[in-house]
């Protein structure tokens, strides 16, 4: 078994910052990832006021536009297999669920029941290109950022799970570290997790020089040039 590069406390620490700040830090600690690894389309957040979520990914794919073609028992077995997969984790998890329909979101997988089931299984929230519903009855504190809000289940069913998915342009694999909030989501390389806080501290100190200068009554282009120069000297 591979040595774990981070602990639950490391993931908990990353929930202190929003997802754009995490992306800023990755520009320093994982510069090759600067132009990829994050979502590219807007989401609807179940509750924009909820704090960021960060956990290891549980990946799956769904469809809803047509019946699965399986028997009722097979559909039930697929759903139970999904729940067992989600539950088999010793770290907090984030579900990343790709909707494969030509028009994603025709049927909502997420609502009152599934948010409560998944929260009980240790899931912090979900990133999905599909839809969700039951806005007033979702499990408290369970964040969903989804592609749409929709009133119906339609024929929603689990297609498969534990494989690679792509949600709004973000590729994600089983056990990837995912950080998400109302802005979207990003995959954090495992070997970068523990380096992110120090990078954020550096960025914050650099930005403070510029932001403090912007608030001065004598702020002008010359002052901005001076502030940018000072910021560059901070390491």
Automatic annotation (TrEMBL):
Origin superkingdom: Bacteria
Molecular-function annotations in GO: transferase activity
Full protein name: Acyl transferase
Origin organism lineage: Bacteria, Pseudomonadati, Pseudomonadota, Alphaproteobacteria, Acetobacterales
Alphabetized InterPro entries for the sequence: RraA/RraA-like, RraA/RraA-like_sf
Swiss-Prot/TrEMBL keywords: Transferase
């Amino acid at each position: 078994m591979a040595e774990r590069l981070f602990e639950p406390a490391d993931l908990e620490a990353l929930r202190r910052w929003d997802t754009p700040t995490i992306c800023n830090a990755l520009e320093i600690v994982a510069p090759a990832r600067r132009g990829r690894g994050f979502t590219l389309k807007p989401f609807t957040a179940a509750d924009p006021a909820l704090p960021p979520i960060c956990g290891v990914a549980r990946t799956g794919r769904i469809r809803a536009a047509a019946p699965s073609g399986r028997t009722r028992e097979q559909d039930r077995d697929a759903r139970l297999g999904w729940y067992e997969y989600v539950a088999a984790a010793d770290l907090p998890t984030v579900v990343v669920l790709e909707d494969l329909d030509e028009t994603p979101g025709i049927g909502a997988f997420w609502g009152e029941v599934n948010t409560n089931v998944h929260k009980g299984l240790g899931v912090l929230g979900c990133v999905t290109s599909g839809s969700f519903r039951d806005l007033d009855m979702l499990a408290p504190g369970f964040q969903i950022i989804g592609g749409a809000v929709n009133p119906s289940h339609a024929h929603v069913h689990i297609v498969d799970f534990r494989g690679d998915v792509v949600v709004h342009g973000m590729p994600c694999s089983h056990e990837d570290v995912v950080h998400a909030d109302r802005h979207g989501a990003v995959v954090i390389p495992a070997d970068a997790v523990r380096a992110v806080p120090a990078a954020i501290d550096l960025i914050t100190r650099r930005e403070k020089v510029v932001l403090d200068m912007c608030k001065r009554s004598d702020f002008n282009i010359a002052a901005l040039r001076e502030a940018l120069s000072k910021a560059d000297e901070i390491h």
